[in-house]
Automatic annotation (TrEMBL):
Region (Disordered) residue spans: 128-164
Family as reported in the entry's similarity comment: Belongs to the BTG family.
Polar residues: compositionally biased ranges: 149-164
Species per Swiss-Prot/TrEMBL record: Onychorhynchus coronatus
Ranges of Basic and acidic residues composition bias in the record: 134-148
GO cellular component: cytoplasm; nucleus
PROSITE patterns recorded: BTG_2 (PS01203)
Record protein name field: BTG1 protein
Residue span, Anti-proliferative protein domain: 96-115
Amino acid sequence: ARSGTGVAMRTEISTAAAFVTRLLRAGGGVSEEQLRCFRERLQEAMREHYKHHWFPLVPSKGSGYRCIRINHKMDPLIGKAARMIGLSHERLFQLLPSELTLWVDPFEVSYRIGEDGSICVLYESPQPGGKAAKQLEGRTSCKEEWRTGRSSPSKSYNMMTVSS
């Protein structure tokens, strides 16, 4: 039984991979050809990793599994894509934030730089079927915040969604 998962998650994966690639580009010293290859490899790795962990009817299900995280340890998917273009873990740590969390969920891609930074939405799409997606308070659409390096005071977010 084919669920069309591959097509469904294309936009989310593309958005997430483009974001990490932009962070690498901002760090400097990586050629456009390397960046293009990195983005393609990262998208392939994410598609493979998420293949059986994508639930459009319950978008929060599997969120932890799909989360891309750098927390003084490199996320394996980013590490794998970087190795394929000849970037070492050491170089990656120089180019990327030491603390980055990227949530890749059906209908939403969001990120946080730093453990107590704001959660920013990169991509958001209404869920099909007429059910309005409930907004999580405290999330802001701050696509460009990473450029300026701004950080807001520590806040706690309730990331759990409860369905009745």
